[in-house]
Every structure is written in C-alpha cells, then in structure tokens.
Specification:
The structure holds three protein chains of three kinds. By secondary structure, chain A is α/β, with parallel strands linked by helices. Chain A is built from twelve helices and eight strands. Chain A has helices spanning 17-42, 57-64, 80-86, 90-97, 132-144, 163-174, 203-207, 222-237, 269-273, 277-288, 293-316, 324-328, and strands spanning 73-75, 121-124, 151-156, 179-185, 188-189, 192-193, 214-218, 243-248. Chain B is an alpha/beta fold. Chain B has helices spanning 17-43, 59-67, 83-88, 92-99, 134-147, 165-176, 201-204, 228-243, 278-281, 286-294, 297-308, 313-336, and strands at 74-77, 123-126, 153-158, 181-187, 219-224, 249-254. In chain B, strand 5, helix 8 and strand 6 form a beta-alpha-beta unit. Chain C is an alpha/beta fold. Helices cover 38% and strands 22% of the residues of chain C. A seven-stranded mixed β-sheet of chain C has the order 3-2-4-5-7-6-12, sandwiched between helices. In chain C, strands 9-11-10-13-14 form a five-stranded mixed β-sheet, sandwiched between helices. In chain C, strands 1-8 form a two-stranded antiparallel ribbon. Classes of the chains: A alpha/beta, B alpha/beta, C alpha/beta.
C-alpha cells in the first residue's frame, strides 16, 4: 500500500455514505467528549492526568469502528478516543474519568487504565510500549483457541524506541501472529520531537528489518485510515502475520490537560488545523455527494448532547466503596 | 610470548607476516586456554564452580577484531569473555586464577569466569546477563565522544542478544548520537539451547542478522568470522568510520562455537562437565557439527599461513608449544594459589 | 546564608553546581533539554546534557558505561515506575561491578526518579517503591523530604563513587524551604531529627515526614512530645540515631507511604526489635499504605494511604492515651 503524504486532501476513496456518516459521528463524539474534559479538569471534576487526542480522531474512528466486540483493542495512556470508537459507553467512560463507582473500572483505573471487556477494550497501560506484547499474546491466544480474532494495539511513535517494541515485533513476525500494530505518529514522544529520538524517519521503516509488512497513511484523512486498516484487518482475519499501520497525525492539544506547550512553539498548529480530520471528511462527503455540512452540524449537536448526558450521569454517580482495594487487590 | 598488541590503529594496510604470525599466536593461545579450562572439569573436579562459557571456535573473530584496535580503544563483552583479554595481553595466570576462584585472580576470585576486567588494557568488563552490556558499551562510547581523543569502543555480544530490548534501544541512541562504537555480533547460530532460526525473524527467513542495522539507519555488514583477516579488514573499516565521527556499525561475524553453550547446570554434588554441543545433544545433527569441526578456524588459519609461506611449519609448532607451556604455567599458578579470605568481598561492596 | 526555593529547584541547583564544579558530571534523560533555550543545555552544552528516547534500559546502561569510563552521569528517569522497565540495569549491573572487579572499576552515577504521585495518577505512577531497592548491595538510596535535604543529598549523590537512586517526591516538588547558599552536602547514612521530643519516637521517610510532623504538631497541642526522625537515606540506614531516640522515649511509631511489607518501616522495626528491644515499653507500630494498588478515585486513593489521623491514632495506642475528642 502506498503511503500518502500528510496533508494530501484525500479522495474519500473506499468509503460509502453510510460508513462515512458513522465515521463522522464517531469523530464528533470523540471531539465533543475531549473538548468537554478541559473544563471538567479545570473544575477538578476529572482527576489526575488526562491525555487528549484532539486532532487525532480519524485514527481511532477509522480503526475501531471496523472491529467486532470480540476483537480486542489494547490502548495506551491516550485512550479516550479509542475507547469511545470501540463502543465503550460514554457515560461510563466519563464516570471513570471522574473516579465514580459507575465508571467502567469503578473509578479505580482512571484515564490511563480504561478497560471494558464487554466491548473488547482490553485495556490501556500507562507505561509507554508496555501494551505491545499484550496484543501479541491476545492474538496468539485467539489463534490457539481456534478463533478468528486478531488483536489491535495502538502506540505512539515514542514507543518505537523502547526495547519492548523490538522484542514484540520479532516474536510477532517469527510466530506470524495476527496482530495489527497501529502507530499514531504525532511527531512527539511526550515532549520531545522525533528527530531527537531516532534517525529513522518513519516508524513503518522500522518494520521492514523485522519482516513485518507496513504502510504509512495520512492519519488525518479518515478515509485513508479506514481503507488501510480494512486491508490490514482482512489479512489478520485470514490468519496472516503482523501488520504495522503508521498514521501520521498531530495533537492539536498538549501532552496532557494543562501542559503549557512551550516545547511545541516551532510546530505550526494552524497548518494542521487546515487538516482537521472532521473538516476534511465533510469536504470529501460534499464532493462525493454523501452528506453536507448540515449533516456534520447535526452530528456535532448530537455528540454534544450525548456528552452533556454523560456528564449528568457521571456527576450523579457516587464515589466508589472504600472496600474495593481489599476486594480487588487479588482475584478470588 | 608476544603479548603486546603492536597495532597503531592507523588505516587498514595489508597485514605483514609478523602481524599474521601474531594473530595466529593469539588464536592458538585462546584455544589452548579454553581447552585447559574445559579439561579442568575432569582433571581437577570441584575446582570450577558455577557457569563457564568458552570461546573455542570464535578465535578468528576475536583476534581479527582485537588486532584492528588502536591502543586507546576499549572493549565491552559478554560472559563468554576469556578470549578478548588473552588477545589484549592480560596475564593468563591471573585469568586462570580468577576462573578457579583464587585470591590471586584478576578480581581476587570475586568475579569468576563471567566477570573478567582489565581496565588498564581497555577491557571494561561485560555482563552476565544477555545483552545488558550493550548499553554499557554505548555509554563508554559517549564518554569517548566527549573526551575527543579518538577512542572507539567495540561491543561484543551474541546473536541472542539482538532479540533483547537493550540492543534496540542502544543501537538507536548510538545512531542518533553518532557515537564512536562498533557493535560486533558474534552469530554462532545457537542461543543456550535454541537455534537462531527458532527465535529470530531474520534468521527464520535466511536473512543476515546485519539486516537489523536498517532499523537504526546504521551501517550493517556480515563477515566470515572464521577468517581473521576478513574480520580485521571489516573491523578496520568500521573503526575508521567510528573514529571519524560518521557513526556506528553493526558487524555480524559468523562463527561456530565448538563447545556447548556452557558447562552442565546442576546442583552441588553432581559432577560438572561439558555436555555435547547442542547441534548433537538437542538437534541430533552430527553432520553439522562435524562440518564445523572441519572448518575449525585455528587449524584453517595455520594451514593458510603455512601454505602461503607466511609461517613455516616449524614456527607454527613453536608457537603452539609456547602456548601450551604458557597455559601449563597459568594452570599451575592457579592451582597453587590460595583461596581468598572469606571476608575479602566485604571490602568491595561499595567504592 | 540561605535562600528560599522549591524542592525541585533545590535539586536542580545541586546538579547545576556540581556540573560547574566538576566537568565529568553529565545530565541526561527523557523529557529534558529539548529546546536550545534549556538552561542546562545552554550552560553546559550538548556533550554533557542530552535528551534520550523512551529507552530506560539503555538510559541506565549508558549511565553505567559512561561511569565506568570515567564520568559521573546523572540520569533523569522521570517516574520511579520507569525504573522497573529496566530493573536489571538498576539492580544487577552497575551495582555489582565494583565488587565483581575487586575494585578495578567503580560506577559513580545517580538515577533520579519521582515517586508517589498520589494525585489521581492511578495504579502505575503512584507507587512508593523505594523499599524494593534498599537491600541491593552496592546501591545507595536517598529519599529527601525537604528542599535543603534535597539539595544536600543530591550533591552527595553526585560525589559518591557508587550508583545512587535519588527518589524525589512528586507531591513535594513545589514545597518551598530554606536552602543553604553555595556548597551544601548532606552526608549519607546520617538521620536528621526534624523535631525533638521525649514521649515517643516517630520515624518517617520521604513524603511521610510531612505527615509525621503534622501529627507531632497536633499531638504537641495536647501536651504529647513526639520526636520526628528522618533517616534521609535508607541505604545506608542510620539505625543508631533511631535506637538512641527509642532508648529515651521507649515508644516507636513508623510512618511510610509504601505498602507494609515493602516499606522501610518494616526494616527499621526489625532492627529496633533486635537491637533495641529492651528500650521498648510498647509494641512498635507501623503506619503504612494498605497492601493495595493506588486507586484513581480520590476517596479510595486517600483511604489506602497513611495520614495524620492514622499516625495520631497509632501514637495514642502506643502511649495508652485516650483518643482526642472529635
């Protein structure tokens, strides 16, 4: 698959009206949810560290909306978008971020540790790269159980320099494990630009020496992400080995809520705003005759309504029972 | 015995007869030493404890590499570390005493076979844990880069180590920082008891393991590690690149270890020995092992030098005889040396 | 003469002064020196100050190798849990080299790691995990509780010829305090009496020192005189100062943010039980975190951690005091 250059307007190829609408709704749900987190965090309704993915919604939507509930996704510390796109209930996700008993982890996990087994959201980890081998193990288990159940793992470009990345790629390749490794390459590892981290320009370039097929797409073009992931998923479902899909994207927010962002001074946010994945899909849809800007405004309004309902649900949820640590420290 | 390493680290020139004889001498000394360590298990049972790993089969790679070093260069190795200090000129008596756990050993018996050091000769040590000395070598190369005296660090490890995260992280950083370092992967085709193609995605597809260098935008090259002259030329190139600030190189040196991974692992009371090589013991592939014996780099190099007329058979015999006498003396010294005082270690817990 | 600065600034001040004093001191790690305006990068240049990728094994291993080769690196690990990614390098490499080489090499390096970010950072970034390193031969562990100690212990850590783990507490980073001007080195293995008292000995480590001092203050208002001791380094551990205090007070309560069986408190309790048993007039009491991961949700997070109320209650029980009226 040819890698598209970031910023390519994109044709919307491979989508149809129904799929495009679903992607639009999913991206708006993520956008509206995360934009609402900012004031919730400032008023201390949301606790701790919250990593945002505003501007990266196309990756979560393009990938997760194609998966069945039994096909597991492993996420990282920037998990909100992945979780919502994978089907995690917005009210329960927000309740988790507010540390409430009705959160999907009963308030014990929070933003970096969201798990929803029913929707195949098998977890986020707060340690960079730590989730990669879980997906390989999960896909291996699926194969041993005779199930058509590949696994998907999201990671950032910073994870590609961790040792566990290399260990994981070697084994996934050697054992031909059906796992799709989705890299959200936003050009920053935490606060450090990529050039300080490696001389290898593309994360997909790292895959070849491990004999892992790979593609790089414009991660702000949801159509490209959708088509490339559809290809990778079809291979994985057919039992082939690993595939690395690199999505070039860009956070429009800092590393976490409240990050002063000084280190990003050199980055031209405006140029990237022009590549806003939602706006681009709307332009593609208009050209293809799928829907118009009015449809997008309606999806936005519905998403913001859903967020307000989630806020009401989460805010009314009690805090968890203090007996939970004793109950949950060990499985029984 | 010519212990001193007479190189000046200048550009690779054709190796002269004297230098080639020196290389054969070091290869033979290593072989003789390792065979004596191995025979200790049967001839002096109980002396050797723990785990000992031998370099027989890798002599050409070791000596070819060391021969290319400049006097100030440094090396970091694995736990299979007897060969390098021998080529660097470390006193064999002190080495054998260390491996025997004696007070007179290089490290007073505190380190043993897996933990030799000779800092004065540029041997900074290694690690008993697979791949974990790769970042140490990388750090030493950072130090060399800052010092700006033209030093290069050579980091030796096995093919198994290239599956460790430490390898990936270290080579990436060395490439970003353009460190003066050469990574020498001695690919002997086996981990402790696994064939490389059972655990390595490149090997499983018949690719050279130097392919891994591409993941770091680094030079990668594969060389016949049984040919000391070829290894010398490859290292000389890589050292020159490192010294000029161009950056690191990954050298895959193809060797065949002629002994098993290490001696028998057993609880006290069970006599220790050297089992058969894994090719036979685990995989039943006697043909492979016998072919490796026929390609043994030590007699192969002797044959080459004698055939070319670089070395007379009599000179070669003399080199071998001298090595045997040197190892005899080293072993006598080690056997006669006292055990360390039981409390001697407590002085070295903290610097 | 002294000046008032935050805990984190005190640490940075020590690193800067040591880098000025000794050009063998290197400073590198994740999330630092990313801009040319970085003050360390500007002052000391890219030879000595570098950002690394997220590669903990290599970061700590590189520090080890640079130390063996003659430098004195300070490696910024950011969060204590990231040490666990590279446990072999922390515990089983540089710590062994001086010993195994019979003193031929030494490994003067400092690993700086923040711990105990119990402010909603949930299960993987909140641990007080220093206890698991205090029994590693060859490794020293510093755990400052005040800005002055933070500076003084960092200075000593950089000058020490051994690997040192320097744990800074995330909740204390912005706490201000008096810090001596100029060179300030706090010796390792020397406990500090943070508050003198005669009725009971409270020993607390790191962040828990603040909890202990708060409890001592409220007890003082009831006429109870509590001595608060901060060991400052847990390896080496100054047991003598604790024993001599207990010899005077007869009562010992230990406060620690770590889980009970992984706590410094448990080790101190064992030492005093063996070496100071005859001084004790009541059982030793441990106020530690409950044996649980740290929850994200604030009420549950608070529930498992020690606090002033729990310390006061332990002191009351040790001294046989009636609980204070609510």
């Amino acid at each position: 698959m040819a890698g598209g250059a970031a910023g390519d307007p994109g044709s919307g190829g491979g989508l149809d009206a129904a799929v495009a609408e679903r992607l639009l709704e999913t991206m708006w749900r993520i956008r509206a949810f995360e934009e609402r987190l900012e004031p919730l965090k400032r008023s201390s309704m949301v606790l701790g560290l919250t990593h945002l993915s505003i501007g990266q919604e196309a990756v979560a939507a393009g990938v997760c909306t194609q998966l069945r509930d039994d096909e597991p996704v492993y996420s990282n510390h920037r998990a909100n978008g992945h979780a919502l796109a994978k089907g995690v209930d917005m009210g329960r996700l927000l309740a988790e971020l507010m540390g409430r008993a009705e959160g999907c982890c009963r308030g014990l996990g929070g933003s970096m540790h969201v798990v929803d087994v029913a929707h195949g959201f098998l977890g986020a980890t707060g340690v960079v790269g730590g989730n990669l081998p879980f997906a390989v193990g999960s896909a291996l288990a699926g194969r041993l159980l005779g199930q058509d159940r590949p696994a998907v793992v999201f990671f950032g470009d910073g994870a590609a320099q961790t040792g566990i990345f290399a260990e994981t790629l070697n084994l996934a390749s050697l054992w031909q494990v059906p796992v799709v490794l989705v890299c959200e390459n936003n050009g920053f590892a935490e606060f450090t630009p990529r050039s300080a981290h490696t001389r290898v320009e593309r994360v997909s370039d790292l895959a070849a020496p491990f004999r892992v097929p790979a593609a790089t797409v414009d991660g702000n073009d949801v159509a490209q992400v959708h088509a490339a992931f559809a290809h990778a998923l079809a291979l994985a479902r057919a039992g082939s080995g690993p595939f690395l899909l690199e999505c070039l994207t860009h956070r429009l927010s800092g590393h976490y809520v409240g990050d002063p962002g000084g280190y990003r001074a050199a980055v031209e946010d405006e140029a990237w705003r022009a590549r806003d994945p939602i706006e681009r899909l709307v332009r593609q849809a208009a050209a293809a005759g799928w829907f118009d800007a009015e449809r997008s405004r309606a999806a936005e309004a519905a998403a913001r309504d859903e967020v307000e309902a989630a806020v009401a649900f989460a805010a009314s949820s009690p805090f968890p029972d203090l007996g939970l640590p004793a109950e949950l420290t060990y499985a029984r | 015995m010519a212990n001193a390493n007479p190189t000046d680290g200048s550009a690779p020139a054709a190796l002269g007869a004297e230098r080639l004889a020196w290389m054969y001498t070091q290869m033979y000394r290593i072989r003789e030493f390792e065979e004596r360590v191995k025979s200790t298990f049967t001839e002096h049972p109980g002396i050797l404890r723990g785990h000992t790993h031998l370099a027989d089969g890798a002599e050409a790679s070791i000596v070819g590499s060391v021969a290319a070093l400049a006097p100030d260069d440094q090396i970091v190795t694995t736990y299979r570390c007897h060969g390098y200090p021998i080529a660097l000129g470390t006193d064999m008596k002190l080495m054998m005493a260390e491996i025997y756990g004696k007070a007179t050993g290089l490290c007073g018996g505190l380190g043993g076979s897996m933990h030799l050091y000779d800092v004065a000769r540029g041997f900074l040590g290694g690690s008993g844990i697979v791949a974990q000395a790769i970042p140490h070598a990388t750090g030493a190369a950072w130090a060399a880069q800052i010092r700006r005296r033209g030093q290069v660090v050579v980091c030796f490890f096995g093919d198994g180590a290239s599956k460790q995260g430490a390898f990936h992280e270290s080579l990436n950083i060395a490439s970003v920082w353009k460190l003066p370092i050469v990574y020498v992967m001695e690919n002997n085709h086996y981990q402790a008891s696994t064939r490389t193609d059972q655990e390595d995605a490149n090997a499983a597809h018949g690719e050279p393991l130097s392919t891994k260098a591409k993941a770091y935008s680094m030079e990668g090259v594969t060389v016949d590690g049984a040919d000391p002259v070829a290894v010398h030329a490859t290292l000389a190139d890589a050292l020159a690149r490192a010294r000029s600030g161009t950056g690191p190189t990954l050298v895959e040196s193809l060797v065949y270890r002629l002994s098993a991974h290490g001696n028998l692992i057993a609880p006290p009371g069970v006599p220790l020995n050297y089992p058969e090589h894994e090719a036979i013991a685990i995989f039943g592939n006697r043909d492979e092992y016998e072919a490796a014996l026929r390609g043994d780099p030590v007699p192969r190099f002797r044959h080459q030098l004698v055939t070319e007329g670089t070395l007379s058979a009599a000179d070669a015999d003399a080199i071998e005889q001298a090595a045997r006498e040197e190892v005899d003396e080293a072993q006598r010294f080690a056997l006669d040396s006292p055990w360390p005082a039981p409390d001697s270690g407590l002085d070295y817990v903290y610097a | 003469m002294s000046h008032v600065i935050p805990y984190i600034a005190a640490i940075q001040e020590a690193i800067r002064e040591e880098m000025e004093r000794d050009d063998r001191v290197l400073y590198f790690g994740q999330n630092m020196a990313t801009s040319p305006e970085d003050p360390f990068l500007k002052q000391f240049g890219p030879d000595r100050v570098r950002v690394t990728p997220i590669s903990e094994t290599a970061e700590i291993g590189i520090a080890t190798g640079a130390a063996v080769a003659g430098y004195r690196p300070v490696v910024e690990l950011y969060m204590a849990e990231f040490l666990l990614v590279a446990t072999d390098q922390v515990v089983n490499e540089g710590t062994r080299f001086h010993f195994m080489s019979k003193g031929q090499v030494s490994v003067p390096m400092v690993m700086v790691a923040g711990y105990g970010f119990t402010a909603g950072w949930a299960g993987q970034h909140t641990g007080s995990i220093y206890g698991m390193f205090m029994g590693v031969p060859g490794l020293k562990v510093a755990l400052p509780s005040t800005p002055a100690d933070a500076k003084g212990l960092m200075t000593t850590a950089i000058r020490d010829d051994n690997p040192v783990l320097f744990f800074q507490n995330y909740l204390l980073l912005l706490d201000e305090g008096e810090v001596p001007d100029g060179e300030h080195a706090v010796p390792f293995g020397v406990a500090d009496v943070k508050r003198a008292g005669s009725d009971l000995t409270l020993v607390a480590t790191g962040y828990a020192v603040r909890t202990a001092l708060g409890a001592a203050e409220s007890l003082a208002r009831r006429g109870v005189s509590v001595e608060v001791i901060d060991p400052r380094t847990i390896a080496p551990l100054d047991v003598d100062t604790i024993l001599s205090s207990v010899a005077r007070t007869g009562h010992l309560v230990l406060v620690d943010q770590a889980t009970r069986h992984s706590s410094v408190a448990a080790v101190i309790a064992a030492e005093v039980a063996e070496l100071g048993f005859s001084s004790l007039e009541a059982p030793i009491s441990l106020v530690t975190a409950l044996d649980s991961s740290i929850a994200y949700s604030k009420p549950v997070e608070e529930f498992v951690l020690p606090d002033e109320h729990k310390v006061v209650k332990a002191v009351e029980e040790s001294l046989g005091l009636a609980p204070a009226s609510a």
